[in-house]
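Title: Prediction job returns without error message
Component: structure pipeline
Severity: low
Priority: P3
Assignee: unassigned

Description:
Job completed but the reporter wants confirmation the result is attached to the right record. Sequence as submitted:
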Amino acid sequence: MTRKRPDYTEARNYYIKGERNEYPTLQDIATEFNYSLSTLRKQAANQGWLKKRKERLKLKEIISIRKEFMGKASKLTNLSLNAISAAEYIINQIKDEQKQIELGNKVFDVHLATKQIWTLNNAMKLVEKSNETLDEIENGYMSPFSDIGYL
C-alpha cells in the first residue's frame, strides 16, 4: 500500500500570504494543519516559502508607497494647475490695467510700471515652475524612488 503524500498548498499559501497582516510561523502552521514541524521546515526550505513571503511583503510595501505618492502627485498636479490659473488671472489684471491707462482712465507712472514688471516676472516664474512640475510628473521623472540613492 502506497502512502499518500500530504498536500502543502494550503499551508504554503497561508505562510506566504498570511491573514489580515498577520503572518504565522512554521510552528503555528504545523500545529494548525497537524504536520510534522521538521517535515514542514524541509518542505518550506525546498520550495522557498520564506523568500516568497519576503518578496510579497516587499511588493506590498512598494504598492503602498506608490499609492501614497500618486495621491501626492495628483495634489501637486492640482496645485500646479491652480498656480497657472492664478498667474493667468494676474496677467489679465495687468492687461486690464494697461487698457485703463491707454483709455486715459488711469495715470501711468514709474511706480506703476515697476509694480507691473515685478508682478509679471513673478507670474511668469510661477507659470514656468508649474509647467516644469507638470512635465516631470507626466514624463515620470518624479517617482517615489527618485531621491532614494541608498537602495
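Comment from assignee: result matches the submitted record. The chain has a mean pLDDT of 84.
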